[in-house]
Design brief:
alpha/beta, 8-stranded mixed beta sheet, 12 helices, 14% strand
């Protein structure tokens, strides 16, 4: 039997919408990627992974992405953004890491802990409330779902999931950790360890699809920067048949400059749905 891997990368609120739209557009055309034997979710992709492996129909998940912010529950939330200050911290951490990916995780994780301690990010309770609006009530599926995060103390990758080494970790905790963008949202403590966004290691962590015979990666924001490698580069090195789909020009325009803006969610979902048409044949040929 062919083992198929679906990689869902990070990309903020608009990334969730774009990935969901793309998945529904492909499914409507007869290619359902959500039946993958392994699903790897990073940051925004962890929310999409939790949703598409749940019992909620994909069409309903797409419909929700078309709702206005007030209807989906985040209309009154202060607008977050990855501003110049956050970008500067990322750049500084890259310079200090000297090409060491785990050192990068430790440096950026330390900055995230400091920012949270100084009240520069929302509280942990506020973040859990926001994430619950998207995955509230969802438990780990009886599927190989992998959710990524980075340990701030060691800089090492953590791969949570029902079939991983820590099946006792709740899905809600794992997803909140995976979405903890450093210096924007608070780090998340799970047991004796503290975690930040899995995107600190990679925008996709596509190497966790190792062992799959074919892989499709949906990557709203995924680049090779310093020690961080893009999904295309990772999968090419793994020498596995794969397809990486990134936003086309229309999707980039719909997403806009702030990937954390809930107002850009509906157009991003529609753009992903429309973009799916261009990839149906290639995905069908690979996916089978």
């Amino acid at each position: 039997m062919t083992t198929r891997g679906l990689v869902l990368g990070g990309g903020g609120i608009t990334g969730i919408a774009w990935e969901t739209g793309l998945l529904w557009g492909l499914a409507e055309a007869g290619v359902d990627l959500t039946d993958a034997e392994r699903v790897v979710g990073t940051s925004a992709g962890s929310i999409v992974g939790a949703q598409v492996t749940s019992s909620t129909p994909l069409e309903e998940l797409y419909r929700r992405q078309l709702l206005a912010p007030a209807e989906l529950g985040d209309g009154g939330v202060p607008l977050a953004s990855i501003g110049l200050g956050v970008v500067a911290r990322f750049a500084g951490a890259l310079l200090r890491s000297r090409g060491d990916l785990e050192r990068f995780g430790r440096v950026l994780g330390g900055a995230a802990v400091t920012a949270s301690a100084k009240g520069r990010t929302p509280s942990v309770e506020e973040r859990y409330d926001q994430v619950a609006q998207r995955i509230g009530g969802i438990e780990w599926p009886d599927r190989d779902l992998v959710v990524t995060a980075v340990d701030v103390a060691t800089g090492e990758l953590a791969a949570f999931g029902p079939r991983g080494s820590t099946p006792e970790v709740r899905l809600e905790d794992a997803v909140n950790a995976s979405c903890a963008v450093p210096c924007v949202y608070p780090p998340i403590r799970i047991g004796s360890r503290t975690f930040v966004d899995g995107g600190v290691r990679s925008g996709s962590n596509a190497d966790l699809a190792a062992g799959c015979d074919v892989v499709v990666a949906l990557t709203p924001v995924d680049r090779s920067v310093g020690p961080m490698h893009s999904a295309a580069r990772i999968l090419a090195r793994m020498d596995v048949p794969h397809l990486v789909i990134t936003p086309d020009a229309a999707s980039v325009a719909a997403i806009g400059r702030n990937v954390l803006d809930p107002g850009a969610r509906p157009p991003s979902a529609r753009a992903g749905y429309a973009q799916a048409r261009a990839h149906v044949a290639a995905v069908r040929e690979l996916w089978g």
